[in-house]
Design goal:
This protein has about 450 residues and is of the alpha/beta class. It has helices at about 30-40, 95-110, 120-125, 130-140, 145-155, 160-185, 190-215, 215-225, 235-245, 290-305, 320-325, 345-355, 370-380, 400-420, 425-440, 450-455, and strands at about 10-15, 20-30, 55-60, 65-75, 85-95, 110-115, 225-230, 265-270, 270-280, 305-310, 335-340, 360. It has 16 helices and 12 strands. The protein is flat and about 80 Å long. The structure holds guanosine-5'-triphosphate (GTP) and magnesium ion.
Length: about 450
């Protein structure tokens, strides 16, 4: 599909603001090449061959051809470009004044500043990519961990849409079958064919549900989760925290009650972004500062997705441990039995922990032994594994989750209607709802309003 849709040519700086070796200014639209040609000297090779970088001066046509910069300029000819339109990319020297001057010239020649995500919006509207791929572009640009980037790249290659394609076709053929019964057959569907349809719908809905269920993990990969280290003073929470964040972020001393306030640090555990929170040790506070600190620890326990209970295996009594485990009983927990370098803990301690249904991970924050095991236990506790969806599709986006759920509900409603002996028309309502939802997911059927909301979350220049 070649775009005749957009009258205007858009321009934006695609690289981040500030100073850099190179900055890229992008033009896209039907006049992109003409505008670009107006700011390079006659005789430049720009416009001869698409997809080829040309080194050329960039001039200001208004100021008697004042040279702005020497740039590498590439023209991508429609429709084989990112947006499906003519694109010209200028790689200029990354000085803000140079970038501003180049942008100013392109604007004066008739380009308009692009809105956030507008290049990708055009790519979508021109049929170059579907909506899930457009969203993947945004997620990739926003990725903070390697794992998020890899998932976004997989979605960008169309993994989710490919996964849904056979389902959509099945659904469509079921709709056709039912519609033709409604149109052409005097009698209702025969019982056997009804049963066959129901069976097929149930299996399709189950397929969708499996995909929907992956969102629990997908959301964690996308949004991250919170882990609070909690324990008695001096148990070694801050020492373990520092090990996990791989820097001496929190203060460690031999004095109980060292940590007073919450100390928070982002880390990546097995590809999942995690906010790790160190807390003040839980005990009867000795003064007002400590009392406030202990209050914050209690809040952190409630806020955390996982509580990492740190126990001093050389010192804590089984009563202390039981009290601690009781205090954190509502949380998803991992129990670290710290200071393993000081010898084996008392068996009554291990027993007290196991009584609460958790097996402790032995660790020494001092030597580093067992720290990897603690990391793995935390990832396991949130339902992840070292191997997060290596091949299966992971739903990471709330919009996708919502639409998949709706699609599955539509199918289920249809199969219930069919097996209860209702008319085909009633079953068709559910099936159309289901198809509509899957279409919205990839953007085949989409409402302007939704597009506006999705693309508003992009950066300018993408
Ligand atoms: N032998 C040994 N000592 C440790 C270990 N982990 C921590 N320590 C020591 O225990 C003391 C307390 O460590 P911190 O990490 O400050 O303990 P904390 O739980 O943060 O203590 P508060 O902030 O007071 O609640 C320090 O002297 C640490 O060096 C360990 O694995 N083995
Ligand atoms: Mg501490």
């Amino acid at each position: 599909m070649q775009s005749e849709m957009f009258e205007d040519t858009i321009v934006a700086v695609a690289t981040p603001p500030g100073r850099g070796g190179i900055a890229i200014v992008r033009l896209s639209g039907r006049n992109a090449l003409d505008i670009a040609l107006a700011c390079v000297p006659a005789g430049s090779r720009l416009g001869e061959t698409p997809n080829r970088a040309v080194i050329t001066d960039l001039v200001n046509p208004d100021l008697a051809g004042e040279i702005l910069d020497r740039a590498v300029v590439t023209w991508f000819r429609a429709p084989k470009s990112y947006t499906g339109e003519d694109i010209v990319e200028f790689s200029v020297h990354g000085a803000p004044v140079v970038v501003d001057a180049a942008l100013g010239v392109l604007l004066s020649l008739g380009a308009r500043p692009a809105t956030p995500g507008e290049f990708t919006l055009r790519a979508f509207l021109n049929g170059r990519i579907d909506l899930t791929q457009a969203e993947a572009v945004r997620d990739l640009v926003n990725a903070q961990t390697g794992h998020q980037a890899r998932l976004a790249q997989r979605q960008l290659r169309g993994e989710l849409s490919h996964r849904l394609q056979p389902l959509k076709e099945r659904l469509l053929s079921l709709i056709v079958q039912l519609e033709s019964t409604v149109e052409f057959v005097e009698d209702d569907l025969e019982t056997e064919s009804r049963a066959a349809l129901v069976k097929e719908l149930v299996s399709a809905a189950a397929d969708l549900d499996a995909l929907t269920a992956s969102y629990r993990l997908g959301r964690l990969v996308a949004d991250g989760f919170g882990v609070a280290l909690v324990g008695r003073p001096n148990a070694g929470k801050s020492s373990l925290f520092n090990r996990l964040v791989r820097t001496e972020r929190a203060i460690v001393t031999a004095m109980p009650g060292t940590t007073r306030d919450l100390v928070s640090e982002p880390v990546e555990l097995e590809g999942i972004p995690v906010r790790l929170v160190d807390t003040a040790g839980l005990r009867e506070a000795e003064n007002e500062v400590e009392q406030i600190g202990v209050g914050r620890t209690r809040t952190a326990i409630v806020d955390a997705d996982v509580v990492l209970v740190v126990i001093d295996g050389s010192l804590d009594s089984s009563d202390t441990v039981r009290a601690l485990l009781d205090e954190t009983r509502h949380a998803t927990r991992v129990v670290a039995l710290n200071k393993s370098d000081l010898g084996d803990p008392d068996p009554s301690l291990v027993e007290a922990i196991e009584d609460s249904g958790v097996s402790p991970v032995s660790v020494s924050a001092l030597s580093g032994e067992g720290v990897d095991e603690v990391r793995q236990a935390v990832v396991r506790a949130i339902g992840g594994s070292a191997d997060l969806a290596p091949s299966g599709v992971l739903v990471t986006n709330a919009r996708h989750h919502e639409l998949l759920t709706r699609a599955s509900k539509g199918m289920t409603a249809a199969s219930v209607a069919l097996s209860a002996g209702y008319s085909e028309e009633i079953a068709l309502v559910g099936l159309h709802e289901s198809l509509q939802s899957l279409g919205e997911l990839t953007g085949e059927t989409v409402i302007e309003d939704i597009l506006g909301r999705i693309f508003a979350t992009f950066c300018v220049g993408k």
